[in-house]
Specification:
single chain, alpha/beta, Rossmann fold, 5 strands, globular
């Protein structure tokens, strides 16, 4: 077996995941099939208005990863420049999901910058399944906050966490 064939293939799937959706989970499953190891990298300080803390987002992912039996997936927190994190864990690839042309434009630009900064690290984009085409974390948070049914678009533990969050913030 050549050195290339015996190399451990590790990919990083980064995001804020606030909260993780079935679309995110689908991408994680697909990445876990292609790579020996997949790290779900939960970004600590995205420039977004977050509902869940980084520790809550990590805990939700860990619960779902265990429930799904994804034995080659681990969940970690990261801060700073993604490419530096990927290098620090020995990753060869960054996994991203694409739902729309807007996603493609943003990922294309980020992928080119990452390629400039670290040409040894590949960006691998997965096109979403049709069932998740319209699903976004922010849209699901809004629907859940207003009492809409999001059960078929989120893992059960995430639905429970959303219900708990919104029951704490609802006016009496």
């Amino acid at each position: 077996m050549s050195q290339q064939e015996s190399r451990h293939r590790l990919a990083v799937y980064p995001g804020s995941f606030d909260p993780l959706t079935n679309g995110h989970l689908d991408i994680a499953h697909r990445g876990a099939r292609l790579f020996d190891e997949l790290i779900i990298a939960v970004y600590s300080f995205p420039a977004k208005n977050l509902l869940f803390s980084v520790d809550e987002r990590i805990a939700l992912w860990q619960t779902v990863v265990a429930e799904e039996g994804l034995t080659n997936v681990r969940v970690e927190k990261f801060t700073g420049l993604l490419i530096e994190y990927v290098r620090s864990v020995g990753g060869q690839a960054i996994i991203r999901g694409l739902r729309s042309p807007n996603d493609f434009d943003a990922e294309f630009q980020q992928g080119l910058m990452n390629r400039k900064l670290a040409p040894e690290i590949e960006t691998v984009c997965f096109i979403t399944n049709l069932e998740q085409l319209f699903v976004s974390s922010s849209l699901l948070k809004e629907v859940a906050k207003l009492g809409g049914d999001v059960k078929d678009m989120l893992p059960a533990s995430v639905v429970q966490a959303l219900q708990h969050k919104f029951s704490q913030t609802s006016p009496a």
